[in-house]
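Dock flavin mononucleotide; give full complex structure.
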Amino acid sequence: MSIEVVPGANAGFDLLVAPRRVPSRDGTAPGHGELVDILRAATAVPDHGHLRPWRFVVVSGSGRSSFSDALVAGLREQDGGEVPASVSAKMAGKPDAAPMQVMVVASPVVASNIPRWEQTVSASCAGYAIVLAATALGFGAAWKSARVLDTAPVRALFAASPEEQLLGWINLGTCEQGSIRRESDPLDLFDGRVTFVGPRPA
Ligand SMILES: Cc1cc2nc3c(=O)[nH]c(=O)nc-3n(C[C@H](O)[C@H](O)[C@H](O)COP(=O)(O)O)c2cc1C
């Protein structure tokens, strides 16, 4: 799979506003080289103090059933063992949505004087960089989470230490034609979400 770069000054901008595509259930996962490229992009994000306060866990193949089992065990922990079959099946099926998941783990350097929140923001940026890089390489990418992320079985699968936080996972894989979800919303500079201190650019 090759990178399609449209020559021109706004080639990168086109990617930022491109409609996102979701991986298909039966798609193909990124290979080793593509994964290396995707994770390289993930580690090029803003990072105050160069702490690299993140790590990633790649789930694919048989790992998806381990992930599925941990999600269901997390559900039992959270809901006290009485889980309706339909709820359990829905949770168990989450890793089936794509051939690969990349769990994004905020892994702060506790001893640093860079505030914890800044480090978590940096890890969040890494997650978004994964989405963008995968999109640039032609893959579908969708960031997902589950309410059981913080339970012991799920944290154990991803070897999360007490100070680490699971930020959700990114489903990755090739996608079918027509899997485009939606165009990005043009931001209305007058809807109150953007304000100005000083003059508004003409
Ligand atoms: C941390 C995080 C967790 C997310 N978890 C989910 C999720 O579990 N399910 C979901 O549909 N979207 C989730 N999203 C949002 C999706 O990645 C995506 O932006 C959203 O589904 C909108 O997709 P669309 O733009 O194609 O409509 C999450 C986003 C973030 C940043």
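Observed: The pocket of flavin mononucleotide is lined by residues 20, 142-145, 167-168, 181-182 (CB under 6 Å).
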